[in-house]
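In response to reviewer comment 3 from the previous cycle, which asked for concrete evidence that the modeling workflow produces usable outputs, we include below a single protein chain processed end to end. The sequence was submitted unchanged, and the resulting structure tokens are shown without manual editing.
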Amino acid sequence: MSSVIFALDIGTRSVVGTILQKINGKHHVLDLISVEHDERAMVDGQIHNISDVAEVIKEIKGKLEEKYGSLKQVSVAAAGRALITEESTLSIDLTQNTITTIEDLHQLELAAVQEAQQSLITKANNNNDDLYYCVGYSVLHYTLDNQKIGNLIDQTGRAASIHVIATFLPQVVVESLLAALQQAELEMTALTLEPIAAIHVLVPPSMRKLNIALVDIGAGTSDIAIADANTITAYGMVPLAGDEVTDALSEEYLVDFPIAEKIKRQLIDQETVEIEDILGFTQDIPATDVCTQIESTIEKIAKSIATEIMRLNREQAPKAVILVGGGSLTPNLSKNLSHALDLPETRVGIRGLEALNNVTISKDFGQSPELVTPIGIAIAAQNAPLHYMTVTVNGKKVRLFELNEVTVGDALIASDFSINQMIGRPGRGITVTLNGKMLAIPGEIGRSATVHVNGKKVTMKHQIKNGDLIDIQGGRNGADAKPILKDLVNWTTSIQATINNELISLQPKFYINGDQSDLDAAIQDRDIIEITHHHTLQDALSKNETNGKENLFNLTLDHKPMRFKKWETQYYLGETAINPTYKLQDGDEITVKIPELPTLEEISRELDIPFFQRMTVFFNGETIQIEKPHYKMIHNGKVASYHSMIQQDDHIELQPLPNTKIIFSDVFAFTNFELPKNTTGSYQLLRNGTSIQLNDEIFQNDRLEIKFQLEDSR
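The workflow returned the following structure tokens.
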């Protein structure tokens, strides 16, 4: 019967051989043979003893060949639990990178997947890049500044990250399958994955766009596949399954493992279970009571499966869950799983052979859900097989394992081309402080790589086929930021004011780290920059040719500096007096008034220093004003009078005179007194009628007289 389809489900506990025949578009199951391994030749879906597994395959092949003739070709499946899932997070600095297109985002996603692949290689302590085939990945979530976000395109912030879950098939799984088949003289014509096989026969194409979780609960593990948008988005495995329940029964009722396994199967369709323990005691126990004793174990399995489903499905429950495999028949497992996922019980169901689409069975093989996967392997391996394909990446041959649509990105992950080379690194940026605020100045944006397939420019999502030639030109790094001051200045408007009707224009002031700079000054990382329009009147005075500068009036008196505001320059804004620290506003009209220079006498009055002793007396009936200095006045090193004009920064010394009393003889310096004619030369000095001498002191309002003895005319 050359038209028959031969398929093998090589499982951990047994190998199932299936013979199908396609008739009028439907698959008809002709035969099913199951043979258990004598030894533990398989562990968690991985062949550990190729020869022992080959012997079981030979046994099944021989029995089927007796009925259906020579069998040379076979379809097989890689166990879903053989898939390895690895999570990875790629973080990027948004101040140095921008994500503006979907292509940018895809490149970063692939870089995260490549990190996951490298993590697996590191864990395996192996540098062989071909150790794993990437068979799919999903983005779990994006974050922006540590907050989850739906999309990173055109987002602004400090940091972003992409968290992916990627699934890999170890190369050794495929190679060991091939070796066991070769020893059994069989050629592998098609390969699929067990989760794909089950979905293919249980879920019609019209329903595959829904978000559905398929759980194949076997003996040692529960394999999970997540379907969404017509593809499988993630795989996972929980190391809890039917054997966990068997172990619980064995411990609870003191029976060995085979008897406990028998009890477990009786719970499915019997009301009472007969149990004989290791002591020989036999008892009939209601099945409901037995289920109660193992309820905690069932809950633990359900919670573990639910947790993994949520993790694989981006922390949200799927629309429905399909259970297959012998372990799915565990009492109350589907109910506990629905509660753990917060789904209605009607959304978690066990599917057996009765649910197979377009499949008929020639005789009664039972309806157990553990037969779904073997039949699905035979059908899916024909309709949706996995293929090897070879492409060339930058001149290097790369072999890919085709699961879904294979893209340029898949080829890059499989090659030694680093995805990081796709994204041109932006130039190094700098950070400065501008007017008290931190400002990040990014470097030049890097140029993304260009990808050509068979000479045509494409994106990372471009689907490729066997034999394609892929050429990748790596991205170009951007230049480091090297700004100058004028790159940061977006205003240069001057301030204009008038000083005594003379127009003054003042440009902004620029300071770098406290030093005034011009617009062509280079900016360095962490520079402190100040740009200000605050100009004082003194700034304007320095620009004014007429008024020159702020005019103070300082002098030194007896070696002590003194300031006299009375003779300082005065500044007015309209009628309001202002000082040189006044901050100018655009359009101000300033009037400058410079006082006349003072005399030494005016300085003395301002300081309230009595330069002279003054008094009024009456001499021979005439009123006399007498002034006698207390000091000898030295102005800038020269003797001066109190009428001398004093200027800014002059030096004045006052040297006290030894005798400052006013005496009678001082009067003659302030009068035009003449000796009368015809005198004898004798005279008498009187003060207020009393005789005094020329050197006697006189006082205010004294009445002084001088009387001469006239000659006798006779």
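The mean pLDDT is 81. We consider this sufficient to address the reviewer's concern, and the full set will be provided in the supplementary archive.
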